[in-house]
Amino acid sequence: MRSFNSLFLSILFFIAFPLTFHAQNLSADNDGDGCVATSDLMTLLSQFGECYSLFTCGYPISHEGYNYNTVQIGAQCWFSENCRYLPVVRPSSEGSTISPYYYVYGYEGIDVTTAKATANYETYGVLYNWPAVMEPGICPSGWHIPTDLEWQIMEIALGMSASEASSVGFRGTDQGSQMKSTIGWNSSGGNGFNSSGFTGLPGGYRYSGGFYYNGDNGYWWSASESGSYSWVRILLYDVDNVYRNDNSRNVGFSARCVRD
């Protein structure tokens, strides 16, 4: 009750005795009339309880102690690097279609600290089976693993037609080159021109007791199911367009986050 009375008395004070200052700026003078008065107080009260995000796409977003680079592609805001979320790590010999499994390319141990110290983790992030990319901790609050439709929206923003984007196999024209990084692909002809800012790297994949195609191809999950499989995107070193298909959920692929 005391706090309410104090607020009420403060309101009465501002109504009865508006404050006027000259030759200085008043931070509470919302209407710029040189006075901190009733109109300023009402503006403040009208906004009470509202929250505003300070994040602007193109700036880093912090998650789990790491600052991820971001990029605006069309109307969407994407991570411009692979997810690095690694609560546990397993060797390539272990896998599942229903339980989350996490891998670092080429690392066959179970120690997270050691896995994070590898060059492949630093460059390519983590490989996830599909249950792992559906775990809530992989993306920061306000972000999520993109659905298959959200991948299509991004591809259309890069010039792919809607009919091409919804088809399977290799689609589009040079959208793959627009998404591939300008360095890092094993073949010099495999590098893209990264006009999208997506910065796709050839992180390879994990499957059935082994790691494959690091430096040659990049593979990314979507959050969308396709029967007992899930939809994926693939960039190949010697192809300029983008491959869309579904794949078994026990395979280890890279992941990106997109803003809600």
Mind explaining what this structure looks like?
By secondary structure, the chain is an alpha+beta fold. It has two domains: 2-46, no CATH class; 61-259, no CATH class. Helices cover 22% and strands 23% of the residues. The chain contains eight helices and 16 strands. The strands form seven sheets. It has a four-stranded antiparallel beta sheet with strand order 10-15-14-13. A two-stranded antiparallel ribbon has the order 1-2. Strand 5 and strand 6 (76-79) form a beta hairpin. The longest helix is centred in the first third of the chain and has 15 residues, at 2-16. The model is unreliable at 7-25 (pLDDT under 50).
Question: Summed up, what is this model?
Answer:
By secondary structure, the chain is α+β, with helices and mostly antiparallel strands.
Helix content: 10-25%
Strand order of the largest sheet: 10-15-14-13
Separate helix tally: 8
Biggest sheet statistics:
4 strands, antiparallel
> How large is the radius of gyration?
25 Å
What shape does the CA trace take?
globular
Q: Which structural class do the helices and strands define?
A: alpha+beta
Give helix and strand order, one letter per element, not per position: HEEHEEEEEHHEHEHHEHEEEEEE
How would you state the average pLDDT, rounded? 88
Number of strands: 16
Q: Could you say how many structural domains there are in total?
A: 2
> What is the rounded distance between the termini?
40 Å
Which features characterize this protein?
globular; alpha+beta; four-stranded antiparallel β-sheet; 2 domains; 260 residues
